[in-house]
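Structure ticket #2291
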Amino acid sequence: MKRTRSEHIRTTVVVIIVLVMLTAVFIIFRDKLNSKLRDNEEQHLIENANTISEVFYTKLDDQLTMLESQARYFQSIDLSDYNAMKKTILSTKGIGGFKNIGVANSSGATINYNGTSSGNIYLTGYYKEAMLGHNAISESTITDEEGDEVLVLAVPIMKEGNAAGVIYGTFTKDTIDSIIDSISISKSASSVVVNSEGKILAHSTTGEVDTSVQMLSDIIPDEKLP
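Resolution: structure written out below.
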């Protein structure tokens, strides 16, 4: 009787050990599988993000090329003559998806093709970059003279190898959103464009995006950000 009970206990212990080992193996397998799936998903997201980023900047490059074509109208005029700037900009036509196109001289004074000034842009980053002879895109959206949030693209007006002024075009957030929609890989997913500080500049209108959110950190905790 005691032997039978002892054997029963031994068998029970063995069964428990086996169950514990099987449970441990299952947990390890599950964690490895989840880790593999997570790695695959992260790699997939990175590849999609890179693809969308490349296409997005290609589209912006196309718009910069359009501005370059407009810059030639100002290469032969005196940009210190505000009336000459105004006459020339009013004789040009809007191109691409720009809300507005304007020109600035070496002092940063502006005139756009609506015949009004966009203010002095001398201290803006995109103006400074363009005056160094480089095409530029504003780091963030700005508020234009009509109160709209816009992204600014700028190209230099070159004379004798130096930048004598800048021609710029503005995109509204709605226009940028539509560009993102046109290159989104999945209609069920959301794409978001942010600047280096994590501010959301634009997002796709598909998927689920809280339009009240302004910073990427409001969506993703800081410790999860790259």
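Closing remark: Residues 75 and 160 are 9 Å apart (CA to CA).
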